[in-house]
Sequence to fold (159 residues):
Amino acid sequence: MGVRRLDAFNLSLLGKRCWRMLLDKEGLWYRVLKVRYGEVGRRLQEGGRSGSSWWNNLCHIRSGVGEGVDNRFDENTRRVVGDGHNTLFWFDNWVGERPLCLQFPRLFNLAVNKECLVEEMARWGWKDGGRAWVWRRRLFAWEEENVRECTLLSHNIVL
Fold:
């Protein structure tokens, strides 16, 4: 085939497929994988044991797991929030080092609307006392402190 480093070539092809899935949510492959594995937070779910080896490799590239993979995909891509219309508040890495669902797992578990967009949260008012914060139960004082911390993180974002 004329390819000297087949492993690097394979990684680059899988990375390209990851990129395509970020951009082309109406494409045939995305729709097929959505039916096969499901979608949570407008992202395709990992296949686990029922996933094909191709899909599992693709998920490893996306999450930065595996030999020679590191976090190249995440480190070499970035999300531009813009008006927040295409950015998920809890699931996308749009503020800080990690998605808010990982930075504030307790708040995420208590949140009623887990699949809201940044634009919706801004419109509803995520700042102190805003209508964006809807919980399954009343928060404890230390959980309210986490809400303030989460609010401060996203406070500097202008939509």
User: Anything to note?
Assistant: The CA atoms of residues 48 and 56 lie 7 Å apart. The helical segments are 6-23, 28-37, 53-63, 72-75, 100-103, 105-110, 118-124, 141-155. The first strand starts at residue 39 and ends at 40. The mean pLDDT is 79.
